[in-house]
């Protein structure tokens, strides 16, 4: 175990490299290599051996998670090819006649597709942009609406494509349902994740912000300039040529082409998780809540749900002659290609997270560094800021979570002074801390010009990524400030149960709304 400042070099190196290269996966690989060298006292042969072992040492749950993510990518491609997204848009065209109604419909569709941020961003943008064009709503406004309801929403959904990743990272970081040598907190990761959701303040405030902006017709900053141009001239691109990457609408589909895949995926997951946890409708042996708390097969459930959805959806499309058998391999390849960068990123980030926690003990070093300097009550706001900056630079919420959980969890465990493994009931600061890391990861990812969701939101809506980045930034200011204040309060109120959540939430919503109203004042 290393106790020098060098244990913090790998994550810092990842940030610096990502900032200058704008490429996350090579930066993560550089972090893995540096971690291996530091852990082995710069012995090249030992470092290669350690890194190889960490790459190889992937458990079956992690493999299930990778395949689930790939299946989501294929589902997105299939929905696009069968025309389900366009059919949904055609249905809405007949019923929506105002800007508020169209924007509200975009929000509703994002909520419906909230099980995956990629699915939400790609589908909602593709479906809604013809409708927003008709109402002279600029493409960047649509990009903001769907982007703000992609990552910030999906992390709040307890059954989503992020669920497996979060549970895996919590397990890697020492939160485990059974006692092992690496166990720091004795609890089921999914149970801990569920209890952290009320503290993901940035996502909650962002949802409020989107609703407030749409319902109160708030407009300011660069976004207002685009909206004024669209209202006066009908030009939804801000007097620029449409981007060449704009996606072409798909043809002759029906609502069933969208609802069948999404419905199967959601239904299978919602039934599969409690069932695999031991809950059966006609048996009183295990309650529904206990089934969720004690479930250790969520990765397998997600894998089966993704696979079943693909099989039924492909068969459904074939029987209705929407695709051909010969086109299936291409759809699988395109979906895999869509998600492969995210899977590779997660693989590298998870490997680096394990090395940071196990081989370098960076959390222990940071705890020793902070002891006597920062009280445990300040950790939520501290980690929120760190996570936001990390995600902003790297462009990845998942990478940020994988980097910081193995540091944050050991840090509060050491600062608490409690013997391990710890009962989470004795460590109430855990939930605000996790909420802070999740909030910062989502916030930085949303604001980052190099994040995949930023690019997807711009691509699916047919807008320029740089315009989207510039116009959404002022809209994120209010929830960002409100989140900072909320985590300061939550850190000091963490021992007071329900109050630790409700007071910061109410205070944050009030501050959030006031800032938006002040920003909306006529210049």
Pick out the low-confidence regions: none
* Strands, count: 2
The H/E string reads HHHHHHHHHHEEHHHHHHHHHHHHHH
From the N-terminal CA to the C-terminal CA, the straight-line distance is 58 Å
Using the CA coordinates, give the radius of gyration.
23 Å
Average pLDDT level: 82
Q: How many structural domains can be distinguished in the coordinates?
A: 1
Number of helices: 24
Helicity level, as a percent range? Answer: over 70%
Specify the overall morphology.
globular
**Largest β-sheet summary:** 2 strands, parallel
Which structural category fits the helices and strands?
mainly alpha
- The proportion of residues in beta strands is under 5%
Strand order of the largest sheet: 1-2
């Amino acid at each position: 175990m290393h106790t020098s400042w060098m244990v913090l070099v790998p994550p810092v190196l990842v940030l610096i490299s990502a900032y200058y290269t704008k490429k996350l996966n090579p930066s993560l690989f550089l972090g893995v290599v540096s971690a291996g060298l530091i852990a082995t006292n710069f012995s090249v042969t030992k470092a290669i051996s350690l890194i190889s072992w960490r790459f190889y040492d992937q458990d079956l749950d992690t493999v299930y998670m990778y395949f689930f993510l790939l299946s989501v990518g294929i589902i997105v491609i299939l929905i696009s090819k069968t025309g389900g997204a366009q059919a949904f848009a055609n249905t809405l065209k007949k019923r929506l006649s105002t800007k508020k109604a169209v924007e509200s419909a975009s929000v509703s569709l994002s909520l419906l597709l909230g099980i995956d941020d990629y699915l939400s961003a790609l589908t909602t943008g593709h479906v809604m942009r013809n409708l927003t064009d008709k109402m002279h709503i600029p493409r960047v406004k649509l990009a903001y609406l769907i982007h703000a309801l992609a990552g910030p929403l999906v992390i709040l959904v307890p059954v989503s494509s992020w669920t497996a990743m979060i549970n895996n990272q919590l397990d890697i970081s020492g939160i485990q349902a059974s006692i092992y040598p690496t166990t720091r907190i004795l609890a089921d990761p999914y149970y801990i994740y569920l209890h952290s959701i009320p503290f993901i303040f940035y996502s909650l405030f962002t949802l409020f912000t989107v609703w407030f902006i749409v319902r109160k017709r708030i407009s300011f900053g660069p976004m207002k300039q685009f909206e004024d141009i669209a209202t006066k001239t009908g030009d939804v691109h801000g007097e620029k040529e449409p981007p060449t990457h704009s996606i072409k609408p798909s043809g002759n589909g029906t609502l069933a082409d969208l609802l069948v895949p999404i419905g199967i995926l959601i239904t299978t997951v919602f039934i599969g998780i409690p069932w695999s946890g031991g809950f059966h409708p006609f048996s009183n042996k295990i309650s529904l809540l206990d089934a969720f708390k004690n479930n250790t097969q969520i990765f397998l459930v997600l894998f089966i749900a993704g696979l079943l959805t693909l099989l039924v959806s492909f068969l459904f499309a074939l029987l209705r002659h929407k695709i051909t058998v010969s086109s299936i391999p291409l759809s699988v390849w395109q979906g895999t290609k869509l998600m492969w960068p995210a899977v590779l990123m997660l693989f590298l980030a998870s490997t680096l997270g394990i090395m940071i926690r196990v081989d370098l003990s960076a959390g222990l070093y940071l705890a020793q560094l902070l002891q006597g300097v920062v009280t445990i009550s300040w950790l939520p706001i501290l980690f929120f800021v760190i996570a936001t900056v990390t995600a902003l630079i790297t462009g990845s919420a998942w990478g940020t979570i994988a980097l910081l959980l193995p540091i944050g969890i050991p840090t509060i465990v050491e600062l608490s002074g409690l013997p391990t493994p710890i009962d989470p009931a004795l460590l109430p600061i855990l939930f605000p801390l996790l909420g802070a890391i999740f909030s910062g990861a989502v916030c930085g990812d949303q604001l980052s010009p190099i994040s995949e969701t930023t690019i997807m939101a711009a691509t699916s809506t047919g807008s320029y990524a740089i315009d989207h980045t510039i116009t959404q930034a002022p809209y994120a200011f209010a929830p960002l400030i409100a989140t900072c204040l909320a985590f300061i309060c939550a850190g000091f109120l963490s021992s007071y149960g329900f109050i630790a959540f409700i007071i910061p939430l109410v205070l944050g919503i009030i501050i959030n709304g006031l800032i938006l109203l002040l920003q909306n004042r006529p210049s």
